[in-house]
Amino acid sequence: MTLMPRYWPRDTSLLGLPQEERLFAVEPHTQLKGYCHWQIDRKSSPTVILVHGLEGCSESRYMRGIAAKAYQVGFNIIRMNQRTCGGTEHLSPTLYNSGLSGDYRAIVNELVNRDGLGRIWLVGYSMGGNLVLKAAGELGQTQPALAGAAAVCPNINPTVCAQALEKPRNWFYHRHFITRLKSRLRRKAALFPGKWDISKLDRVTTISEFDDRYTARDGGYRDGADYYDRAGARHVLDTIAVPTLIITAQDDPFIPYSMFTTPAFRQHPQISVVAPRYGGHCGFFHVGRNGEDPYWAENRILDFLRGEGIPIEKQSVDTAIKRPRR
């Protein structure tokens, strides 16, 4: 489930979609690059801001897949790159991390104040899912233009997610992430000489060690434990004031399902959690029904967006796959 969508043949060319490259200033000396696909009348159309996961970018297949579908039903789409991602290492003197929700609050505010947009949705995957949930919670009721949020397999508690990722059974995924993170840091260090001491980078073998030594200190946290604790969206879930959809899988290898079974979710009036038994990490690949393609999570997000924020019915883990909402 985790790997299949990454290799299944699929047209993600976005042919026919207008595209505009845009830089968003989120902090002094820091810009995020996004690719905007505007409807003819952008002001009267709802807008979706897409945020990718760890070591992804605006060009990730899932980003392009959901972008094409949402644009076709009338949404403006903005595919964002997190700091340093998608070849943007030069646009920020800092690394990216799970706590930088302020970046997306700034983007929402810019789109409202500069572009005059009135209905904006935040949609994120994995680490990006945590960021959009955190941003929604921090905004609370202060931004009327925020219409809703959707997150796929969000790492709302980075402490337990890092522990799960580092288990021996996940060595394949763990090796992928730590290798990519170390390569990115080397590229970043070449652009900003002296900012990071990478003399011992080769000795780093786990993602928690990398985050403790580099990500946390770069982000202004005391250490890795402090970063993991403070960066999680779990702290602000209770202040989310807009319709919110969370899609996760009970068999996700490193986003423990137990995080989503607490009263904070069951009793929240705005959050709907859909958790099928199978789905892997952001995979949810299944045989399409009634003309649907195999990308189940994308189609459920589309249902949610087109329903103008009416939460998907809190389904049982069986009916979530067998009887998806139309």
By CATH, the architecture of the largest domain is named 3-Layer(aba) Sandwich
Let me know the number of strands. Answer: 8
Average the pLDDT over all residues and give the rounded result.
92
Oligomer: single chain
Indicate the proportion of strand residues. 5-15%
What is the total domain count?
2
Number of helices: 11
> Order of SSEs, N→C?
HEEEHEHEHEHHHHEHEHH
Strand order, sheet with most strands: 1-2-4-3-5-6-7-8
Show unreliable segments. 313-326
Derived structural class: alpha/beta
Query: How is the biggest beta sheet arranged?
Result: 8 strands, mixed
> What fraction, in percent, of the residue positions are helical?
25-40%
| Overall spatial form | globular
- CATH class membership of the largest domain: Alpha Beta
The radius of gyration is 19 Å
Distance between the termini: 22 Å
- The name of the CATH topology of the largest domain is Rossmann fold
Could you walk me through the main structural features you see in this protein, from its secondary elements to its overall organization?
With 326 residues, the chain is an alpha/beta fold. The chain has two domains: 4-157 and 232-321, Rossmann fold; 159-231, no CATH class. The chain contains eleven helices and eight strands. The chain has helices at residues 4-7, 61-72, 102-113, 127-139, 158-165, 171-191, 207-218, 224-231, 263-266, 296-306, 319-322; strands at residues 20-27, 30-37, 47-51, 76-80, 120-125, 146-152, 244-247, 271-274. It has an eight-stranded mixed beta sheet, sandwiched between helices. α9 links the parallel β7 and β8. α2 runs parallel beside α10 (296-306) and α7 packs across α8 (224-231). The longest helix has 21 residues, at 171-191. It is globular and about 50 Å long. The two termini are 22 Å apart.
